[in-house]
Design goal:
16% of the residues lie in helices and 27% in strands. By secondary structure, the protein is α+β, with helices and mostly antiparallel strands. The protein has 1 helix and 3 strands. The protein has a domain at 10-58. A 3-stranded antiparallel beta sheet has the order 1-2-3, with helices on one face.
Length: 74
């Protein structure tokens, strides 16, 4: 974290856009609570890059879960 901060908070919203005659596409918006800075994204890697830039912490391990097990208790 920067400037001696112990934690950073983010609010993220992800939705599926469906357009006529086009494939559905995931879209998202993320806001850093402390600064109010926000970004729209179309790839989770873009969301991760935003969080990394604001916290100096990498997203290593964020994508390690098996897709079928995300959100499931261990």
């Amino acid at each position: 974290m920067r400037r001696g901060e112990d934690a950073a908070s983010f609010v993220a919203r992800i939705w599926l856009e469906r357009h006529q005659n086009a494939s559905p596409a995931w879209r998202g918006h993320i806001q850093h609570v402390q600064s109010g800075e926000e970004r729209h994204f179309s790839k989770l890697t873009e969301m991760c890059a935003f969080m990394e830039r604001l916290t100096d912490a990498g997203c290593d391990g964020l994508w390690d879960a098996e897709p079928g097990n995300i959100g499931m208790p261990q």
